[in-house]
Amino acid sequence: MEENTRNNKNTKLLYALIALLAITVVYMGYKLNSQSTQVSSLLDENNVITTERSELEQGLEEMLQQYDTLNVDNEEMKAEILQQKAEISELLERVKKLKKDDGSLRWEIDKLKKEAGTLRDIMKGYLVTIDSLNTMNKTLVAEVDNLGNSLSEVNEAYTGLSETVKDQNELIKAGSVLVATTFSAEAIRVRNSGAQKATNRAAKAEMIKSCVKLGQNKIAKKGPKTLYLRVISPDGVVLDDKNNMGSTFNFNNVSGKYSAKRQFDYDGTSKDICVFHTVMNTLPAGQYIVEMYESGVLIGKTTFDLR
User: Fold this and answer.
1) Residue 244: which of 254, 229, 258 has the closest Cα?
2) Rounded CA gap, 6 and 78, in Å?
3) Contact yes or no for 131/66 (Cβ under 8 A)
4) pTM here?
5) Where are the domains of the chain?
6) Can you tell me the distance from the alpha carbon of 16 to that of 184, in angstroms, rounded to the nearest whole number?
7) Contact status, residue 266 vs residue 178, Cβ threshold 8 Å
8) If we measure between CA atoms, which residue out of 121, 251, 239, 244 comes closest to residue 185?
């Protein structure tokens, strides 16, 4: 009897051990399958990141190659393009230096892709502008040829009317001055995304943005024009142009400093143009006077306040 009892206890203990082993085997199998799934997911994520990194690097190199094919005569645009190429090259170096074992690699890739997208949008804007300039230049060449023929015919026909022509030229000169139908100015700061935001706080002002709408003028001579911007601080000082410190231009029969300038091609039609002054030092609070000149003539004047 005692032996049967002992056998029963041993049998129960054996069954318990078998059950425990079965549970352990099932648990270990679950853990192994879970870890295998995690490893597979990590490998997939790593492959995606590696592909995105390669595509980002290739896209930046293609942007540099496309910039190299551009042929631009405008010196200001040449300087802007060189600056963009430098920013692309710097971003490309950052992509190449990314570490594979860096835990923040996903975040870094997304950040660099966003920066590359901003640079790509800027490049598209340059391509559109250059294409427009090339088209405009072809049109200007044809118009200049036609104008030359017309002037020759006019000179032959009106040789004896020099005084009348002189009076007419004076009228044309007066009527050829470009007219601003609207003019505005404001302080702005530039976000990391490249977006511009107006501000009335002197400490946050990074640029002075002045925009003008030039009216249609069929009398004005077509071709290259230069807009000069003068930003006058509350204490009466004209802010210097960052790229041309102390440079001057002629206006109202005097010579004075300008804060920024922009060249453009005028074709006689209405045109919207903005000129930017880069702030070099923190601006003082107060009222700023902004003037815009073309051909030495004041075409726009306004004010804005900073606090």
Assistant:
1) 258
2) 98
3) no
4) 0.45
5) 2-129, 178-306
6) 88
7) yes
8) 239
